[in-house]
Specification:
Blueprint lengths: L1 E10 L3 H12 L4 E5 L5 H5 L2 H18 L14 H11 L6 H9 L3 E4 L1 E6 L2 E5 L5 E12 L3 E3 L15 H5 L7 E5 L3 H12 L3 E6 L9 H13 L3 E4 L3 E6 L5 E5 L4 E4 L1 E4 L3 E3 L32 E3 L10 H20 L15 H4 L2 E4 L4 E6 L2 H6 L4 E7 L4 H6 L6 E7 L4 E9 L6 H9 L4 H4 L12 H9 L2
Parallel strand pairs: 1-2, 1-6, 2-3, 6-16, 8-9, 8-14, 9-10
Antiparallel strand pairs: 4-5, 5-6, 7-15, 11-12, 12-13, 17-18, 18-21, 19-20, 20-21
The structure holds flavin-adenine dinucleotide and nicotinamide-adenine-dinucleotide.
Family: Belongs to the class-I pyridine nucleotide-disulfide oxidoreductase family.
Cofactor: FAD
GO biological process, one term: 2-oxoglutarate metabolic process
Length: 473
Amino acid sequence: MQHETYDVVVIGAGPVGENVADRVVRGGLTAAVVERELVGGECSYWACMPTKALLRSATALRAARQVPGAREAVTGDLDAAAVLRRRDAFASNWSDGGQVAWLDSAGIALHRGHGRISSERVVEVTGDDGAVVSLTARHAVVVATGSSALLPDVTGLREAAPWTSREAAAASKVPGRLAIIGGGVVAAEMATAFAGLGARVTVLARDGVLPQAEPFAGERVTRALRDAGVAVLAGAEAASVHRDGDGTVRVTLTDGGRVDADELLVAIGRRPNTDDIGLDTVGLKAGAWLTVDDTLRVADSDGWLYAAGDVNRRVLLTHQGKYQARAVGDVIVARAKGEPVDDERWGRHVATADERAVPQVVFTDPEVASVGLTAAAAQAAGLRTRVVDYDLGAVAGAGLHADGYQGHARMVVDEDRQVIVGVTLVGPDVAELLHAATIAVVGEVPLDRLWHAVPAYPTVSEVWLRLLEAYGR
Ligand SMILES: Cc1cc2nc3c(=O)[nH]c(=O)nc-3n(C[C@H](O)[C@H](O)[C@H](O)COP(=O)(O)OP(=O)(O)OC[C@H]3O[C@@H](n4cnc5c(N)ncnc54)[C@H](O)[C@@H]3O)c2cc1C
Ligand SMILES: NC(=O)c1ccc[n+]([C@@H]2O[C@H](COP(=O)([O-])OP(=O)(O)OC[C@H]3O[C@@H](n4cnc5c(N)ncnc54)[C@H](O)[C@@H]3O)[C@@H](O)[C@H]2O)c1
């Protein structure tokens, strides 16, 4: 068996693993990443990038149709084939050549194959040809193996060959009828995308649409999906699934109803990619999420094992995983060099924002952009809050942006500290408004000072002033 030694070995070269390795190399250590599939991970080829490419064209078309003058110039329908071609380009045609070249330029070694921890600080990599290379880490092993789609225990489901987000993101044609189990982020975005591409979509939303978000967000997205022709069946749950000889998937519901489709997408959440990475060899449970401290070090390990990104279940988002990667890369370097560790709240070596300041955009139409706590979550956390709502469509900039602009904004104020702890914006193109809210929440900017942050006129951002006015001074 071939043996190699590095300062740090990272299992998984998704966005998080790549960034951990980059950070430790920038800090003067050596690093290897192990990847069994494509360098770039889920995000690049089957998640963030291709799905947003599937969504973007229909959104642009809707935007043009909402502005007289532009509307008249739109004379045709969406070209689904062109959208799929553009999606292919955003997925780099499922080739990781560009990312491999970047690893090379960053001085990071790549080992292709399946990585398994075999003992303390040792990772064995089994290549496609069965050859095994043993990698020893002088300082740390970082698990960044991500997550996979979860399938519910529904009779006949697996035999019916359902789509997960992977097959949907990489679809080579648009099914005539698409049924979706789930009502979360993936279900809402995919329903929007495939309805825009011309499919007849049915959403079996057992717990409603976007149940984790502010209730008005789910309500507005549900309304928009229905306006777009999507059948949203709130409370519907699949009891059994069968795929007929002609390819039709028949979903029988627990209330006896039936939904027929050409494809069935399951989008009910994720499970960690830890089944077969050797956790049992170091006293941890195979198949479990990896619990970490704020410096991303795995609890119950002897200090050499870290986990970042989806696999630690803190936040299942690329940008937040990359934020963790910066913290974990830097803390490994600090510990290796015997330098002080800055693990105070908001310190350099901790991922404090994961707790209460996570930004997310759901790219439905309207978009849902949120950061921090919802009103319900703030209350559950025991904060004394005041909730301020404003009609986004009443802002001058919104009216200019699109005729008939409809949207809603909410800020949740911690009354004791006079700071904003949560913001949710729903409306066309609100994604780019979110970072101002993130800065206000992370910076814990006092409301008194926010009055001096004057939004430019006439932008949609003027909603900030309206929210402050509604709160009062
Ligand atoms: C449909 C969909 C859309 C999404 N859209 C967004 C979005 O718009 N914005 C956003 O922020 N987030 C989005 N996400 C979430 C985002 O994709 C994940 O949070 C992100 O990919 C996590 O990065 P990661 O590096 O932790 O894991 P991954 O991207 O899953 O990468 C893990 C890598 O590890 C490799 N690996 C696993 N096990 C092993 C092993 N034993 N040996 C070697 N290699 C291994 C895998 O092959 C993979 O390349 C979306 C998710 C889905 C499903
Ligand atoms: N734009 C983005 O930021 C983006 C886009 C897509 C995915 N993601 C990330 O990917 C992750 C996975 O997304 P997801 O939509 O699969 O998960 P999710 O957790 O967002 O939603 C899953 C939904 O499925 C429902 N559900 C759970 N079990 C069920 C069952 N047995 N039957 C029917 N319904 C069931 C839940 O009520 C929930 O609403 C999310 O955590 C999200 O952060 C992010």
